[in-house]
Batch of 2 targets.
Target 1
Amino acid sequence: MSGLLKSSIARKVAMALSGLFLIIFLIQHFTINFTSVISADLFNEFSHFMGTNFVVQALLQPVLIFGVIFHFVMGFMLEIKNRQARGVKYVQFNGSANSSWASRNMIISGAVVLAFLALHFYDFWVPEMLYKYVEANPEDPSRYYAELVHKFESPVRTGIYALAFVLLAFHLWHGFSSAFQTMGVNNKYTPFIKKFGYTYAVVIPAGFIFIALFHYFNH
Amino acid sequence: MSVLESHIPEGPLAEKWTNHKNDINLVNPANKRNIDVIVVGTGLAGGSAAATLAELGYNVKTFCYQDSPRRAHSIAAQGGINAAKNYQGDGDSVYRLFYDTVKGGDYRSREANVYRLAEVSANIIDQCVAQGVPFAREYGGLLDNRSFGGVLVSRTFYAKGQTGQQLLLGAYAAMNRQINRGKITPFNRHEMLDLVVVDGKARGIIARNLVTGEIERHSAHAVVIASGGYGNVFFLSTNAMGSNVTAAWKIHKKGAFFANPCFTQIHPTCIPVSGDHQSKLTLMSESLRNDGRIWVPKKKEDAEAIRQGKLKPTELSEEDRDYYLERRYPSFGNLVPRDVASRAAKERCDAGYGVNKTGEAVFLDFESAIMRYGREKAVSSGNPDASDAEIRRLGEEIIESKYGNLFQMYEKIVDENPYKTPMKIYPAVHYTMGGVWVDYNLMTTIPGCYAAGEANFSDHGANRLGASALMQGLADGYFVLPYTIGDYLAKDIRTGEISTDLPEFEEAEKNVRDQIDRLVNNNGKHSVDYYHKKLGKIMWNKCGMARNAEGLKEAIEEIKALRDDFYANVKVPGEGNSKNTELEKAMRVADFLELGELFAKDALHRNESCGGHFREEYQTEEGEALRDDENFKYVAAWEYKGEPSEAVLHKEQLEYNNIELKTRSYK
Amino acid sequence: MNLKLKIWRQKDANTKGKMVDYQISDVSPDMSFLEMLDVLNEELIEKGEDPVEFDHDCREGICGSCSLQINGEPHGPDRGITTCQLHMRMFKDGDTITIEPFRAKAFPVIRDLIVDRSSFDRIQQAGGYISVNTSGNTIDANAIPVNKHDADKAFDAATCIGCGACVAACKNASAMLFTSAKVSQFALLPQGRVEATQRVLNMVKQMDLEGFGNCTNTGACEIECPKGISLENIARMNSEYLSASLEG
């Protein structure tokens, strides 16, 4: 990897590509989750398909996990390099005069999302893997909805969930259009990309929060 | 009095340069690898010379006091660069550029040099475009031109108001290419403090590393001085804070004659002085005079009211305004040469018509241009009945596209909006036509020591036309010096490497160390700036835009006394062996204090008025300059003899075979 | 007006520096920021102290010598100007002003507020030029028409003064805006296209070697740039770099 990603620009492009990949994944994840608001059966059906389909499980899932890990590891590596590039710190640094909080604190919003992902894996993915592959329990196409609802009974968990998505919104607010700039796209479409990115950054996390609150209040 | 040998080639004017190039001795490429050349100064002249010499194969060392060659003060030139391309088809030609330059210089420059300058001017544009200099273009994709003061054709190429910057970055890029190839070794943050002469030839320099304070010896087979002009002898000028005469003065003290020191250009369109804290003056490009009209109130009481803030200039009706340049010079109007425009402003202000608090400012008004352009635009965009407000808006847009960055700069400094109220301007020291005397090959009177760009006494005579400084710097550096220097170096191919252990290096280094020790240990009372400001006042008041014998005599005495006081009482904090800006300033001011006296001496001896040198005793009844071709048609080259007052005058008589000497008239 | 100044003082690259407080009175609003420092220095010299060292030269915003991080922003709170063009009318009586050098590992401090920006020169040396001989025997300047739009954009990129404010403002001390300005200028002109591939690879390589950080597109550089160099140039360099990498 180091050979391929020796230059700063190549590393940044890798960040942008993995980020865009995760952005696309997020749409898919959101769509399936959203079905839980509409109908339990529909949600179970989708979840079962995703949980048992060979292509999804054996090919897409590892790619996704790699994408997530890559994005985080790379993000931290860049952050360390960037901090080293300053050397002596400023006594006074007025970042808010020239840039947004979201753009300057991708590492914070990213780290919060990472912490949330750990919880998320602990809540859903690890039990799911145990259930299917370790304990080798029989298939139960209708268990997913109940599991989902169960997790959103706790107000603390729902609160943490919501908070994480607020930070994800900040992350996306900057990350979306930033990825395009890094890929070398800055032209007459840029204002549109920016607006689209801001909309995406608000709508998707707000949607996830809505789903969580929906289940919390409805059960 | 000895005769200076200018080495002007024989033959008809138009063939001199070509013939000369054909006759010049060449150095074979294998030998060039064994020859070192030092270039001091990395502006347009030094940077372009260094790049070309390195490209030819010489080993070049460059020296500049700035932290990068890119910061040399050529970068601040705004307006443009002249070239006899005749792209506009308005009758321009090499001869016309030559003629305009000699005439603009009030017939005090060398015909052959000026013709060569005009001849190579077109190459400069080709060269710079090939290097990627982004000159302004028209919609057809071809290069745009504009006109400048003192001429009747549009031959000025420009890059908005940043032409000097773009040309310098071009030369810097050419240097970088050679640095990358290992042919140029740059010594940035280094200041040359002496020239080393061995057996009568320039063989190296002593330089101070401005970061560590180390004194270094550098040897070479030839030394090129391209360190710019000495306008900072006036303290307040449009030069950079660090611009200095030191390199030129040191070679003068080692035997190079200094020519026409009193020929100084006062630029008419600068932002006026605002107070005692002022550290430098800011130029507003002369191109503004293309559209701006210069005026003062007709009545003294109106001027008084404006000075006190009781009356706004916009409230004054047309009849109450005196567009004095248009009145005095109907044919050139606001586009008269710089010296004429400057003196006219001074005349009005001295007569009591100045328009700012200090009484030293005139208006530069864009109102007519805004409305004229607005009307044209309204008509051409199919809206001939546009309202005044609409016309003004359109006009302001056009003015902004032409001068936007200058207007913005003005507003930042003065805190007034020049779209709404006329600018205030006043003349300021800007350029020095005088400098180190050089022959046709740009060699000084020290063999192996060359001077290029503003540092030499140059091709501008007694006054320089706008957009010609960049032209001369690049012509010298790209196209003249790299070839003429070969003629000298061809005889030096057997010399081999020059040792820096020679006694001459030792002695020069010792002198430098002694001066530094003396200044650092002086423990005096006053800062360097205290002396620099005093010197500036003497220069401005007595050797400025108008001079007279009495004032010049006083100036000579006052400068001498100030110099003695300086050495007795200057206070330089810190040490010599570290970064020490005050010490750097002290070394430079010490040289200005000597140059200033020679300046006054030269001005005193020149009993005529010509170009930038205006002696009050020599003027017509209408107040125009009165030249004396019979007695002063020569270059005054001064030889150093220990004290500026003892300098010996040498005359290089000027001959005009291709141009008729006339009284300059812009009426 | 009267002001309190907090200024970084550091004897040389190897000595540890610290912030030192100074009082200055009777500051005129018409003064430039550097003229205010001149006054301070005159007072310090008078008192027998070492004056504050800072870089400056043209004092008209074009040479790029002056730097200074003023109240946490390069070239201070005003926009579109360098420190030498910053006027004291931007401040109020009684203000405290913090003055630090531009901070970056690639800009080591030389003394007080002076930093070494030769890393910028080395980036330019790596490829910031068109390889044409300075013989003057090139083709006629008007032989290659250049689309005005491109020529104007190339000019806008070329107005970079190399002051380093982009690096100073960037939270990552990235030099992408500086590097991309030169890459863009030449990439937009037909004369520069010939070497475009090698140029961008070499310049980016040198930029990385100098220890500048990575661009995270915060946009601070564009806002603080005294010449308003656009982020568009960074995007252009990114795409030039990508296609050059794929080609190479």
Note: Chain C has two domains: 3-111, 118-247.
Target 2
Amino acid sequence: MDVNQYLGIFLDETREHLENLNAQILNLEQSPEDSDTINEIFRAAHSLKGMAGTMGYKRMQTLTHDMENVFSEIRNGSIKANSNLIDILFQCLDALEEYTNNIQETSDEGTNDNKPLIDQLNAFLNDNKGQKEEASEKEKPEEKKEEASEDAGRHWMDIPIGDPEKHVFAVAREQGKQVYGLDVRVQETCILKAARAFLIYKAVEEKAEIIVCNPSAQDIEDEKFDLEFSLIVVSDNPLEQIIQAAQNVSEIESVTGDVFEVQDVPVKEQGQEDVPAKREETKPAAVSQSNAPAKQNEKKAAKPVVNRTVRVDIEKLDVLMNLVSELIIAKNSLVSASSSEGMTGAGFNEQIEYLESVTTNLHESVMKVRMVPIESVVSKFPRMIRELSKKLDKKMELYMSGEETELDRTVVDEIGDPLMHLLRNSADHGLESAEVRAKRGKPEVGSIFLDAYQDGNNVVIEVRDDGNGIDTEAVKAKAIERGVITPEQGESMTEKDIIGLLFHAGFSTAKQISDVSGRGVGLDVVKSKIESLSGEVEVKSKLGEGSTWIIRLPLTLAIIQALMVIVGGEKYAISLGSIQTIEDISPSEIKLVGNSEVISLRGSVIPLIRLSKELDIASLKSPEDNLIVVIVKKGEKLAGLVVDELMGQQEIVIKSLGRYISKCKIISGATILGDGEVALILDANALI
Amino acid sequence: MEQLKLTDTVETAETAQYIVTKLGAEQYGIDIRYIDNIVRMQHITRVPKVANYLKGVINLRGEVIPVMSIRLKMGLPEDEITKTTRIIILKLEQHGTIGVMVDEVREVVTLSSDSVEKVSYNSKEGVSDFIFGIGKHEGELISLLDLNMVAMEK
């Protein structure tokens, strides 16, 4: 029975439940009496346990089971949630997350039993409810054991043993392992015999390697057996352990076993060709710790690669489906229009327009499918702030808004770390200690805000605090001390420049990493991460009043609006997002400042970049002609790109140039134009 | 499955198929296993600031694929684009998909390993770096290109 096909769903749902639990347990701390919250927690924990059990993740199941016990006592009102318990519960969630990560990577939950956590949970239960017996005792093996002693006929003796198996036994013996026969009897009331058999399989496989079973694994899987089945296993664990493991599965009436005596085993030189094949059949696709000869292990189940998935609202898919059908209609109309009227008729143009609107809508809805709310990332922050608050001994509160704002899945996956860093920064450096706050007449509890909202084609995420703000003088002093700038440079720097220094890679040093965050450590990493997502970071700060970090991200990465330009006869695309204006400049307006060309535009001095020079191509325009200058913006900086000609605005699909040509910095990618030609996309950020 | 693969490699150890191409007067052989496609010469979009042998990128059914000139890579005179010029699309494990320009594609030949002579590496010309052997086919000599060397960045 292969559960791997459900692995993806299992992981997705587990994550969802864990997130939910995180949020609800936080709630619980706020309002320990709220029965809705408690019920919700209970439900989530229960589903988790059920899922883990079904998938055969024993340790995970045990842990959730014990957590569930605690929740159930809370629900009954016999335990009250206090801060201590909440801490333990959070640790449990972390442990569960670790299991989940292990499962994702290796399909195995790992070997950490998290015994201390379970003990703590149970201790809590016992403290509060003395008479409650150790709750972690799961399935009572007592009743099973009654029959266990009775020698149930040794059915495994009847299993026909072929030569390949004999060879395996012989090899195992040579390695000092034992061969055991096991009889398993399932309770008559058991409904899902195959499932139980499978769990037995899993349990036994942790201790031993299953060589043969009767009936065959396939038959067992198809429930083609009565109540009994037999196994022959090879293991270096004692028999009792194996039996014990198997008996832990519920609804099993008995498990008996003995050492399997193999008579006259001729050792063949080579295992026959069908050994590995048979082996695979008898082994469900779980990674077992078998120590059998390597050659036979080659067929071990490959690690499942769990694909990243996006859960999609069925409505979004319906819209997509509709659009695709419209697209087909449009195509058919085009076909008929071209055959009946030739390529000139008015109907033809109409169809083209129709097709255009369909494709635009199609694009939009495909993008929507890829969009996920940032909630999945930010939902872990309240808990983080709670922990920081304890660790730093500062009172603080996190206010979040706009969790439902949607971003491309790839962006959402990447945005978590930078945000976490900014929040930590705010908590650690932004907010003052309670005494200072009191002195300044601020409320004792510091506030951190995380706001997300959509702004045109961008999504803006703001991290704001009402703390001290950035002390530019201190930053300057530190920068000079670190040798990032010279004292002379420091003199002439504006406040903005100084704040910009925080993002300078040289500004942060690893030495300063405190438990929470160093002063400015890793802000450069935050910046480069955001920039790699084609976004930008901005800081606004007022000393004594707090600071705001503003992250601006594009809604989507794959398709952009671009301005097509021609330079020296070649076509290039510039992302519309970075373009401010387009100017017509006469050559006489160009001034030279320190050997570089600048223009003065509405009061600001803007450096000119001649694209023909950057792209190593001769401009086709004569020097006397007016220049077409595309003004682009990177953060606060402006620059004017000189192009030969403008072609117009176009929606372009970004294609990678591939790793073979990736050394060119000013080219961020390529796109394919309507005529099939490739045009390169200029990265305005790299040019400035 | 495993057995299949095994016989496969055994076979190719003895004979291999090559596409014979022309660069100038010489014939070069490209192992057919690495060839994805052969397309006619088309407009190549120049990419600035890259090595001179990288001619640029082309659009191959929606994929953007870099194209290089074997001639320039090997230090031969620049390609002359004619009617027979072709771009051979190679799929290499190490370098991904790349296109190489050749003057002409002639035929497919099957060479057994005993008709291939390994080249000695003492020749002064740069060309020999890119050749792993010389094949003899019907009285003609075919230089067999070492594609990983050709594609390797200098």
Note: Chain B touches chain A through 22 residues (CB under 8 Å).
